[in-house]
Amino acid sequence: MFEELQAIVGPERVTRDPGELYCYSFDSSYVRGHADYVVRPKSAEEVAEIVKVATKYNTPIVARGSASGLTGGSVPVKGGIVLDMTGMNRILELEVENLQAVIEPGIIHKELNNELIKHGFFFPPDPGSSDMCTVGGLIANGGSGMHSVKYGTVKDYVLGLEVVLPSGDIINTGCKAPKTSSGYDLTRLFIGSEGTLGIVTKARLRIHPLPETKSIMMATFGRIEDAGRAAVSVLSSGVIPAAMEIMDGSAIKAVKELDPTLEVPDVEAMLLFEVDGYRESVTREVGLICTICEQCGGTTRVAKNKNEEERLWAARRLVGVAITKLNPGKVRVYEAEDIGVPIKDVPFMLKKIQEIGRKHGMSLVTYGHIGDGNLHTGIAINPRDEAEWKRVHAVKDDIYDVVLSLGGTLPAEHGVGIIRADYMARAHGKGYEVMKSIKKAVDPQNIMNPGKMGM
Amino acid sequence: MIQDHIEDIIKCTRCGRCRALCPINEELGWESTNARGRMLLARALAEGEKPSYAMKRSFYTCLTCSMCTSTCPSGAKPDDVVEDARREMIAQGSAPPYYDTILENITKHGNSLGDTGPRNAWVPEELRLNNGSADVIYWSGCLTSYRQQQTALSNLKILSRFGARVLDDERCCGSPLLRLGGDSVALEHNRKEIEKSGAKTLVTGCAGCYKTLSESLDIEVLHVTQFLARHVDELPLERLPYRVSYHDPCHLGRCMKVYDEPRTIIKRICEFEEMATSRSLAKCCGGGGGVRRGYGDLARKVAKKRLMDAPAGIDYIITACPMCHANLQDAGGKVLDISELVLMSMI
Known about the structure:
The structure holds 2 protein chains of 2 kinds. Chain A is α+β, with helices and mostly antiparallel strands.
């Protein structure tokens, strides 16, 4: 197989060196696999040929971008070929007049936006991993970010895909028109499929004009319920903030400890808003948000300049970092950290998470995108301590029970991968059987990223 | 031992932020050739994996530029880990051939380059120490002494106004070996020489020497930009009609946090414009960590990219490290050492 792979991409872009394979056997989670070969394709045609080899030898094939995923999604748990897609990183077409761009999947999210900004546009889904994640990975995981409350998730921005199927056939989904009602929505089927059905080699994306201006503001609350009430009231008022983030007392405490100069008040909850659009409407909407938050018992502060804006956002950005930095000898593990619940239930969920943490003697730092009900739960442990892992899993089970009872979702933006695969049947019921039927129909040999999503 | 770094290795959450910033990863693209990959391979080494081709390439293509360490959200220190991984590689007999050459060069000839000529050949007779004493010693370093004597002379001419002299028998500070995971073989000799000179302050124009000597000597060690910024009002500087930019050497900037002093001096002399990435985010010239020695083509590719960060139409890129100077110049850059600029302004 090695010689056949070399024949496709040349000897320089395929390896079976044990050191290299070791590096390609991880992502950001604690799932570990063992790659047998790594190949770095440059074109869809090469991908198709490589997939044919995998099919011929009945060998697993796992596409991988930056492997910044948190669920083991790109870890070759069943061995086989790892396809490093980062060499396919070009913007192939930029059609500003059509509000569209065609890209290869290996392009880094931030680099895409750096290019689009030059033309007065941007690609709105904005993961925290923008600096390093690939757009292909974002598509594979159905990702999003802080601005999804106004702009939606990646699902809302992909018009069409080029996909290599397990047979080696290259298909195109969707179309160039802004909308279609033609047949099954294969584009959306592949988005969030985590490479279990095929490998995306090209994507046609909707792009959005840059807003004229934006404003950042913070509201602090003595009671977390008031923050929740304020969030629901703002969304019900007709204002759609570009971002609406929440930090609970544990997250605020962590940020204060890590950087006291940010002068974050000692409160039980804070909301962070970003409002963007035309200057006049932003001014009006910020005023309205302040009024609503104050009516709910909050104290508000609007950033007056870029420096203040940066300081407000810094508080939010520091949370994830604080979890590892404040716990010497421990590192953050990504378990039970990406739940989604109905917006009105966010404050309840935040309280519940703390309650569950106390029950298992674990300190949990909670924050997230309240605007779309998505919460992140930071847990730091000594990963070599089996007892701590047991407690983490007990916390996870309890949190997931509550989430499902509220009608929520276990991963709101980070995908299923390995670490949430066992919950798929419970989360989706008979719908999961349909998913499995689709998988079997498209990939009868189960070579496409096997083991993920329980497939 | 690499096992001593296991806490730091585990601190890496493999988020991948470093892979987007690593200039070597940008060129080579393999997962092993970025800081996250290097941390993984250090872990593999600690777990008893035998060094493979990819592992060797991984550790020895690290520029030790510290970009990954300074931006790591978890507070891990990949550049420290790499140096210790290299130490482990040496212990296991997997050092690259140029490591042994450098070691032999320093042991036999006192310099990392293997030059057999006298180190102080460029020093004017009246500025030699000649077994005398001086409060200020100018430390030139191997590269400047043997390859960039114009820079050495510029530095010494300026510093001699403050009584600076050159040691009679300066030998390699140890930086090239330390960065490759070895030991500083001439440290004790240099210590004795410095003690004999009675120096209170040691000034060097080399970023690598500055980092290494600051970390190993007990007397005051300054980079020439720090010394000159302190005395800038005492220098007869005239404005020059140049528009220049400044390349922050990694071992002076990110590693030692010397950012303002070079800018203070340059702005006194000519029009200044920052490069596209500067200060703590300045990209590496590509020459550090033994990469210029072991992977010359790769070093030049990184340097070429760095040159693209320079503003359009500038007259010179100024730097404050002979390694950066050499590497950027080899890649086609019009480069001046800061001492040369200062001396031009003084004449």
